[in-house]
Every structure is written in C-alpha cells, then in structure tokens.
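[audit] Reproducing an earlier prediction to check determinism. Same input, same settings, fresh worker. If the tokens differ from the archived copy the diff job will pick it up downstream; this log only records the rerun itself.
[audit] input (443 residues):
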Amino acid sequence: MAVSKDAAVNKPDSAQAAEKSEAAGKSKGIAVLEGLLGKESAPVIPLPGRRNKIEPAKKTDWKIRWLKKLRWRHAIIGASFLGLVAVPATLASLYMAFIAADQYHSSASFAVRSIEGGVSTDILGMFTQASGASTVSDSYILMDYILSERMVAAADRKFKLEDVYATRGLDYFYGIGSALPIEDKLEYWHNMVDVNFDHASGIMQVTVKAFDPKQAQEIAQFVVDQSDSLVNSLSLSARNDVLRAAQDEVLAGEARLSKARAGLRDYRDKSQEISPEEGAKLAVQLIGSLEQQLTQLNADLATAKSQMGEDTPRIRVLKTRIESLEQQLAVERQRLGTGERSPTSVAGDPNSPDVAGRIAQFEELETEREFAERAYTAALASLEKARIEANNRQRYLALFIEPTLSQMAQYPSRLLNAFLFTLGLLFAWGIGVMAYYNIRDRA
C-alpha cells in the first residue's frame, strides 16, 4: 500500500516535470525561431547538441544590421553622385549640344626676319637669313604685344568688342558682358586669341575666334597689321639707335675740326703769314746772305789794311758796313731763335720776332687740325658703315599665311568639353568619397 501510495504521489510529479520540460523546449524553439526571423529583442537560448544551428542565427542578425547601415550609406553616395555628377554633367551636355553658339576661327602665320649682308637668291634663303638672337627676342616682344592691354584697347576702338562678342541667344558662358573694365576684356581676349611661337623655326601662329567667320578674319588681319607696325617701329628704333652714336661722333669731330681751323686762322691773321716755316726758310737764306756779305767785307777790309792806313776813308767805310752787317746778322739770328731771347719777347706770341716760337705754335695748331681732320674722316666712315649695317639689319614681318576665312564652325568642342566636364566632376566626386571612407576608417 505504501509503495502504491508513493507511486501515486510520484506520478503527478513526473507528469509535471514532463510538462515543464515540454514547455521549456517549446519556449526555446520559439526563441530560436524569433532569432532566425531577426528580432533583436528575442533572447537566443543555446540548446544542447544544436550549437551549429544557433551560430548561423547570430551571423544572420549581424548581416541584417550591416545591410541596414550599408543601404543608408549607399543611398547617401548615390544621391551625391546624382546631385554632383549626373545632373550637372547632363545639364552641361545639353548646354553644349543645344545652347552653346558656334565659333569660327581665322589663323595667320608669320615670322620676324632681318636682312643680313648679301641678298639671297631663293625664297628659302629670304626666310632663313636672320640674326637668331635678335629676331627671337623681337618675336617674344611681339607675342606679348598681341596679348597685351594695348592690343585689346586698339581692337576695342576699331571693332567694339562688346558688340562683336555679344551673347548669342542663351549662350551666356561664351559671350562677353557689357560695360566691362579693360582687365575683364583682356581676360576674354586671352580666351578668344591664341598665339603659338615655335622657337626652332621662329614661326608664330595667331588664331582668332569669333561668332562670325568674317569678323574673325577681320580681327586676325587687324592683329597682323598691328604686329607689322610694331616690327617696323622696332626696326626704325634700332636703326636710329645704331646711327645716333655714329652721328654724335661725326658732330663731335666736326666741332673739333672747326675749332682747330679757327685757331689756325686766328694765328695767321695775327702773324700775317701763311706759314712760319716759309718765313724761317727766308730768314735762313737772309742770314746766309748776310754772312756771305760779311765774309766778303772782312776780306776786303783785310786787303785794304794791307795797302792803306787805318784812318783812310775806305777802311772806315768797310768797318762801318761790317758793323752794320754784324748787327743785322745778330737781329736775324735772334728772330730765328738762336742766341738769348729778348726780354720783351713772349713765347707763343704770333707777333713775336722769335721765328722758332711761331713755328712751334704753328706746328701745334697744324697738328691739331690734321688730327681733327682724320678723326672727322673716320667718324664719317663709321657713320656710313653704321648706316649700311643698319639698312642691312632691318627687321620685317614675313607673312606667309594670310588670315583664313572659315566655312564651318570649329568651336566649341562640344563632345570634348562635355566629356572633360563630366570627367572632372567624376574625379572630384571620387576624391570626396574616398576622403569620407578614409576619415571613417581612421575614426
């Protein structure tokens, strides 16, 4: 009886335990099912012997959370791509295809040349005879002049750039505004005028763009004419610079020669003789004649003394003549420069009886005159040589391609501009996305 009671008592306990285990198993199954469905709030209860089924549930839950975050980032990146790349690129392509106005270009080719020495016999020699360094520097000067404010101001006065490049239709991007300062016009001119210079050949090519082909050709012709005027001005200026120094030397030599001639003329007016050398020759002849007469008189006196007394009239006459000749001979010798100079005589005085002093002064004046004449002659020769060289080195603008007249529009490059614009936007957007991910990974 006792055993049966115990069995009766234990039976409900075992039934209750079975019911509890069944309820626990059912709750664990619900929890696993909820975990598989992705409910984050449902606890995951590990079951013995079923770990391989619980772990995929955890991985699935992590993937769902990652997918939610990934979809949000992708939405932002996609929206940024649409707003920053796709829409602007589409608008730019539509603008280039339907709104941008046609542009025509006119090109001209020329070179700065200078004639050196002899004349060439062929056309190639005419273009190749040039002084390399000078023409290259002139070409760079010309290139800067074409792209300068001076050229823009001249073109604006002639063509009224605001009218030539006025906005065509809705094309406000390639058109020019109104009432712009010269700086803005210069910037627009740089966009519409292109200058290319080949240093090896010295050839310069100018390309002018405009909305009308005839206007482009007229502006290009104006640029060529202005360039030719500048080259001629540079050539004339260089020629004048070369000749100016030679002309100054000629003027200085002429003034020096005139001064020397004036000094020689004043000397002749005061001395009343053409050349003191001729006077010296006459003085020497006179002295010789006096010495000859004196010698003869001395001989006659000696003869008379041997035949007559000292008080005879002949001897007194001879002695008187001899004294007169000696005095005259002393005076003539003093005028010639021998002996002691008279205290009243002045060195270099044209009126001085000193012939040697007059000859010295005359020789100094004559030497100055001869040197001034030679210097003047050399200056004239240098001037003539400089004139010939300046004429042979004249620069000129060799135009071998006249400004062309376009028959079809070459600008703007619609496909290329649209492609480059899209590529630039895509590149900028890609850099932004990579920068975002880089900052996110470092954070």
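[audit] rerun output stored. Observation attached for the diff report: The CA atoms of residues 104 and 409 lie 5 Å apart.
[audit] end
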